[in-house]
Each structure stands twice: as structure tokens, then as C-alpha cells.
Amino acid sequence: MTTYILMLLAGTLYGFIFGLIPIAGATVALITIYSFIEYFRADPYLLVTFTTAVVVSCSIGDLFASVMMNIPGGGGSAATMVDGFPMAKQGQAARALSAAIFTSGINGLLWGIAVFVFLPYYGQLILKFAIPEMLAFIMLAFVCVAFINSQYWFRGILSLCLGIFVGMIGLDHVTGAHRFTFGWDYIAAGIQIVPLMAGIMALPELIETYKIKGFESVAVIGNIWDQIKQGAKDSFIHIRVGLHGGVIGGFIGLIPGVGGAICDWLAYGATTATNKNEKIPFGDGNVKGVIGPEGANMAQKATAYVPTILFGIPAAPFEVIVMSLFMIVGLEMGTPDLLKDLTFFHVLTSSYMWTLGLTFVISLAFIRYAVLITKVPFKTYFWALVILITWACVQYTGYWEDYAMLGICVMGGIMLKYLKFSRAAFIIGFVLSPRFETLLSQYLTLYEPFDMLYRPISASLLTVAVIAAVYGILFNKTRISYV
Predict the structure, then answer these.
(1) Long-range contacts: 205-213, Cβ < 8 Å, 24+?
(2) Boundaries of every domain in the chain
(3) Which residues contact 330 (CB under 8 A, 6 or more apart)?
(4) Which among 75, 217, 353, 382 is most buried, taking Cβ atoms within 10 Å?
(5) Beta strands 178-179 and 170-171: pairing type?
(6) Number of other residues whose CB lies within 10 A of the CB of residue 2
């Protein structure tokens, strides 16, 4: 028990620190775990505790960079900048942070109970899913990430197809033969997920932020405790705004492949649309503009575990890394053995709840020191992050080929980002490629081509996929076009 408590504390502090770093967030924090993954092989549940603590503490910690520096600590806090940073410039940073922390805590608790306490019972859904249903669910994931995650839906389709192709490099899962390796034995077993995630998702953002010469200054925080009290009052006075954001985030988290890159913007858009004629215009420091998206942030993080654990289909990029880390220590998502493992669910639930409470206290205590973040130039810790990520990416063989693969992935990530191709679609396509190929082969062997349309669950999933595609083509106006 003592070891688990220490691991919980370590994961909470580790994640909170990464949350404070602009752009880093849960994705970068989880990638660095690969560099010391061997420590967890003896007890996989310690990894469950550590990663859960990292995800929760990062999700709350990253709002500090958004409010204080106008640069998101992670994807889920981007919309918080719109009103949070103007409040900080007006000397109300403590109020904005307090309102965000209380809102995140409330929604994190509500959605945490709804998800983690009852997650083992949700596992009964798996009994209803045969090959046609699982194939339809993966197709729904593909459609959602290509059409909803980006306003450039055609580029999203291309990104998805490219990810599926890259996922096919290495061993043919049907024949066992090598394919698309072009004679490079290093990739005969497939492309490793660590350099791919680091190169596609993490390093391009860090490099772009490195180009920023400096951050706008914020006003000195005065009457800190009075502001904290006011922020707490704001979160309860406008609790409907926070809960509304939580519903949006919770729903988005359940949709496979979409992730949290758009849920905070959707929550912010809903907040502005349902609160007209405000005394303080949105964008000028309206506290509701902080409460809405932060309500969505923690809700999405909680519900994202549902499709990831039950079906082995990641709901967000950070869940891709969680799945990979768990697999290394012998915990494979979406399998019957895991769904019967009550120890896993107990550790996951308790880790989430304890970390939520611990991070809540740490975040409130840290507000008085938040202004110090703006005094530390990003360039001072940029190289430390690059070295740490690189170290995690070269553990596969330790030779030059690891560095070459990381370089190739970074160049690919930069190209996808600046051409506005959905990197999330690429990653989801890559991760689900082997499973999609296997299920498609089994389906075509055991079923008729249109049998899927005559089964209630698979037909319903395909209907939702069609609706998502129509929405993506005709109505999607999300501001996140580069994820």
C-alpha cells in the first residue's frame, strides 16, 4: 500500500509539472514514461496508478499556462485562454484559476463517479459485440476523427488513410510476411509507437512554441485569497455553465477517435451562444468563458477511458499512449481478461479519485506562485523536454536507426501540421490499422458483405457514422484545424 501511495504522489507531481509547461500536457508527460517503463514490469498496477495520476494532474495543471501565458498547457485548455488571459492581464488571474479549478474538480468528480465506479458493469456491453459490431465501431471511429476532429474533412480522410498505410508496414497480420519495408530490417516488426507519437504530436508543437520570442506580461495578482474565494463563488453561481460544458466534454470523450482537442471549443461556443448580452463581453475577461471549457476538460478525460478500456479503441491521442504503456506491462485494453480483472478497475478508480482531490489542493495552493510561470522563458526548459523525449524514443535498439526514425516522424509531423492534415486522424488510423485489417478479413470470410446492415447494433453505429460524416462536410466549423 505504501508503494502505491508514493507512486500516486509521484505521478501527481510529475503530471502537474508537465501541465504547467506550455504545450506539453499529458501527451508529452506520458511519452517520457517509456524511458523508465521497466520499473513497472514487476507490478503493472503501479503503472495504472502512475499514468492515471499523470493524466488527471496534467488536465488541471495545464490551465495555469493557458491563463498566465496565453499558451495552452495541453489541448484541453486551449479555449480557456480566450477569457482567462484577459482576466490575468487585468490582475484577476487568481479568480480565473480558482473558477477553473473548482469547475474542473466538480465535473471531474461527477464524471469520475459515472465512469470509473461503474466501468466494470459497462463491460457487459462487450458481450453484445461480435465481429460486425466491432468493425462498425472502428468505422465510426474513423469517420469521427476524419470528419469531426478537423474542418478540413478531405485532408482528414487522407491523413486517416496514410495512418492506416503506415500501420500496415512490417508484418502482414494474415500471412506473416514482410511488407512495405523497402528492405529496411529495422521496421520489419512495424513502426514503433513512441517515436511516432513524439514526432507527430509532441515535438512539432514544442518547436513552434520555441519560436515565440516571449510572453505577454500579466498584472500582479493582488488579494489572492479574496480572488480565490470569488472564483469559487463564480463556479457555483454559474454552475449550470460548468455542468453544460461537462455534458459536452463527457459526450465527446465517448466518441472514439475524436479526443479533447475540440471539446473545450465546443463548450466555449455553447457558453457564448447561451449567454447573450453579457456585461463583460466574451473575450474581454468574462469568467463564464473560463468555466464553460474547463467543465468540458475533466469530463472528457474521464469518459475517454470508456471506449479505450472496453473496446481497445482510443478516444484521444493521450489514450493511445496509455494503451501502449499498459500493453508493455501485460495489460491489453479491450480484452476479456482485462474486463474480468477487478484489481485493475479498483486501482484505476481509486487512483483517479485520490489524484483528483490531491491535485485540487495542490492547484489552489499554487495559485499564489502562478505569476512565476511567466518569469521562466520557454527556451530554458525546451531543450530539457527535447532531450527527455528523445531519450524515451531511442530505447528500442539504442542505435542510430532509433534517431533516424524519430527524425523521420518529426518531419512528417511538421509537414502534417503546416499542411493542416489531421494528425489525430493519422494516429488513430495507425493504431487501429492492424485491428481493422484483421476484423475486415474475418468479416469478409464469415459474413456476407451487407450483413452488417441487418444487425441492430452495427446498423445503428453505421447510421451514426453517416450522420457524423454529413455533419463534418456541411456543418463542422471547429477552430482546431491543425490537430
Answers:
(1) 205/23, 206/23, 206/24, 206/28, 206/382, 206/385, 206/386, 207/414, 208/23, 208/417, 209/22, 209/23, 209/71, 209/378, 209/382, 210/378, 210/379, 210/382, 212/71, 212/378
(2) 2-474
(3) 44
(4) 75
(5) antiparallel
(6) 6
Mutual angle of helices 131-147 and 423-446, in 10-degree steps:
160
Q: Amino acid letter at 350?
A: S
What pLDDT, in 10s, does the model give residues 425-459? 898 889 889 889 989 999 999 999 889 999 999 99
CA distance 37 to 244: 38
Task: Measure the CA–CA gap between 68 and 86, rounded to whole angstroms.
Answer: 9
d(CA 19, CA 58): 4
The three cell numbers locating residue 373: 510561470
Mean pLDDT (the chain, rounded): 85
Q: CA-to-CA distance for 183 and 221, rounded, in angstroms?
A: 60
Whether 352 and 56 have beta carbons less than 8 Å apart is answered as yes
pLDDT, tens only, 257-291: 666 567 777 788 788 888 887 788 888 888 998 99
Task: Tell me, rounded to whole angstroms, the distance of Cα 287 from its chain centroid.
Answer: 25
pLDDT in tens, 160-178: 999 999 999 988 766 778 8
Locus of grid cell 491489453: 332
Cα 166 vs. chain centroid, distance in angstroms?
Answer: 21
pLDDT tens for each residue of 237-262? 999 999 998 998 888 888 776 665 67
Cα angle at 60 between 196 and 361, to 5 degrees? Answer: 140
Alpha helices for 202-316 (secondary structure H): 203-210, 224-237, 239-254, 263-274, 288-303, 305-311
pLDDT band (50, 70, 90) for residue 222: low
Compute the distance between CA of residue 347 and CA of residue 350 in angstroms, rounded to an integer: 5
Determine the Cα–Cα distance for residues 257 and 1; give it in Å rounded to an integer: 35
Residues 6+ apart with CB under 8 A from 36: none
- In 3-state terms, the chain is what percent helix, strand and coil (to 5)? 75, 0, 25
Grid cell in block for residue 182: 523497402
* 166 contacts 443 by C-beta, under 8 angstroms: no
Cell readout for 341 is 480483472
Residue with cell 479549478: 101
Q: How confident is the model at residue 212 (pLDDT cuts 50, 70, 90)?
A: low
* Residue pointed to by grid coordinates 502505491: 4
481 confidence band (pLDDT: 50, 70, 90): very low
